């Protein structure tokens, strides 16, 4: 018996693979410092926990509406209108899913068709390095990825001209993720406006159906001087932008699995209706008692979110200051999310103290884990150019950051 070609071709998540290897070492009594999983180390704010407990106690344990109950969807719509400046968003434009990952999966399936007959495949432009799941999800939906390659010198940000050159008559969408996983950098409002102008120009000429998919899961974790801006607030592209977000990162709710998508105007209502049908044939709805935490998180927990962000800002500085002291390691200043993404390619061709040859980021990460017991994510799965880099999260305690980067420094100094 065989599996389908699309499943057989899928690669497992490198992030989860590193976490599994670190867990295996720990099971043998080895202390491993992990900088692999992008998960806050904070506990979910108390008002959110209390809201869930109260809802359970009240008996809210039955099936819930597929896209989310009206109250939680209106709380999201209000947040997008008033905080993000996205126009014409109502509860009918919002679908709540089991995490931002599922929201993205549904968006790609609602937008893309597999090639039929002699039709060319639909293209999705993706600035890389990029989160590991975008490309597989696009491929599962029948599309193809067109990479726009960036590097550390540009803070891993795509230029408008690069995006213009990537657009063809087969372009269906572009994915933007700012702040970025894995890069830890973000676009300024002016940079986003320049990209939006390119998309608006393409929509008026070669690509009338082009869509922006804006993954804003890290919108609250801003570390640098530039303010966050939603692409969907830019008038020229508001009616062709799908905003994807969730509560996992900013509210320390990774295990709660709360994500959502929203558009605006007629197109936003149309894609929300399509995704509601998709979700109705898959997972249906997230639990009703979790839905009741969404308005509480969005309306009552800003102080807790700001406190966590201040901690990330401090930790990011500690990690960056330590990384930049490591010989020949190039790392942009983290300005958003909770990642550093250093380029370690200057050390390719060297040999570790344990006798391992370092020819790629995966070699670097494997040797670092086995010899210094520090877990990082190798960059290969993040797209072209990322094979030079490793991802390190600072969503962990300061002591771990100091000791972990010290071990990385020692590892690099031991390379010959």
Lay out the secondary structure.
Elements: H1 5-8, H2 14-27, E1 33-34, H3 46-57, H4 70-82, E2 94-97, H5 100-111, E3 123-128, H6 134-140, E4 144-149, H7 160-166, E5 171-177, H8 189-203, E6 211-215, E7 241-246, E8 259-262, H9 265-280, H10 288-291, H11 293-300, H12 302-323, E9 339-340, E10 350-351, E11 357-358, H13 361-372, E12 374-375, E13 377-378, E14 390-393, H14 398-413
Parallel strand pairs: 1-12, 3-4, 3-5, 5-6, 6-7
Antiparallel strand pairs: 2-8, 7-8, 9-14, 10-11, 13-14
Q: Nutshell version of this structure?
A:
The protein is an alpha/beta fold. The chain has 14 helices and 14 strands. A hairpin with a 5-residue loop joins strand 10 (350-351) and strand 11 (357-358).
List keywords for this structure.
14 strands, 416 residues, Aspartate Aminotransferase, domain 2, alpha/beta, 2 domains, Aspartate Aminotransferase, domain 1, 14 helices
Question: How does this structure look, described?
Answer:
The chain is α/β, with parallel strands linked by helices and 416 residues long. The chain has two domains: 150 residues, Aspartate Aminotransferase, domain 1; 240 residues, 3-Layer(aba) Sandwich (Aspartate Aminotransferase, domain 2). It contains 14 helices and 14 strands. Strands 2-8-7-6-5-3-4 form a seven-stranded mixed beta sheet, with helices on both faces. Strand 5, helix 8 and strand 6 form a beta-alpha-beta unit. It starts with a helix and ends with a helix. The mean pLDDT is 95.
């Amino acid at each position: 018996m065989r599996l389908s070609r699309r499943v057989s071709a899928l690669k497992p998540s490198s992030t989860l693979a590193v976490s599994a290897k670190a867990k295996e070492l720990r099971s043998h009594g080895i202390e491993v410092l992990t900088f692999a999983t992008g998960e806050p180390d904070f506990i979910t704010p108390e008002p959110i926990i209390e809201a869930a407990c109260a809802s359970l106690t009240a008996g809210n344990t039955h099936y819930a509406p597929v896209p989310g109950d009206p109250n939680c969807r209106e709380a999201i719509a209000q947040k997008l209108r008033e905080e993000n400046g996205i126009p014409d968003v109502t509860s009918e434009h919002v679908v709540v899913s089991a995490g931002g990952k599922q929201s993205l999966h549904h968006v790609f399936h609602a937008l893309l068709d597999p090639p039929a007959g002699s039709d060319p495949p639909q293209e999705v432009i993706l600035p890389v390095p990029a989160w590991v799941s975008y490309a597989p999800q696009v491929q599962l939906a029948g599309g193809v990825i067109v990479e726009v390659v960036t590097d550390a010198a540009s803070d891993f940000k795509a230029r408008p001209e690069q995006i213009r050159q990537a657009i063809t008559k087969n372009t269906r969408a572009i994915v933007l993720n700012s702040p970025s996983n894995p890069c830890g950098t973000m676009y300024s409002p002016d940079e986003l406006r320049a990209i939006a102008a390119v998309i608006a120009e393409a929509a008026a000429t070669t690509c009338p159906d082009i869509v922006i998919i804006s993954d804003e899961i890290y919108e609250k974790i801003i570390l640098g001087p530039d303010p966050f801006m939603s692409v969907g607030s830019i008038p020229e592209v508001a009616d062709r932008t799908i905003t994807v977000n969730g509560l996992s990162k900013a509210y320390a709710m990774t295990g709660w699995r709360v994500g959502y998508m929203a558009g605006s105007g007629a197109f936003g209502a149309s894609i929300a209706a399509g995704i509601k049908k998709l979700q109705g044939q898959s997972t249906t709805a997230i639990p009703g008692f979790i839905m009741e935490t969404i308005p509480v998180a969005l309306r009552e927990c800003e102080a807790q979110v700001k406190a966590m962000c201040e901690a990330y800002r401090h930790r990011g500085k500690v990690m960056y200051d330590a990384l930049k002291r490591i010989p020949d390691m190039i790392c942009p200043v983290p300005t958003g999310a909770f990642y550093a993404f250093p380029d370690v390619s200057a050390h390719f061709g060297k040999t570790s103290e344990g006798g391992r040859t370092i020819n790629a980021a995966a070699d670097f990460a494997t040797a670092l884990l086995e010899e210094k017991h520090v877990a990082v994510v190798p960059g290969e799965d993040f797209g072209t150019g990322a094979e030079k880099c490793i991802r390190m999260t600072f969503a962990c305690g300061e002591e771990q950051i100091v000791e972990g980067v010290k071990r990385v420094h020692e590892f690099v100094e031991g390379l010959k």
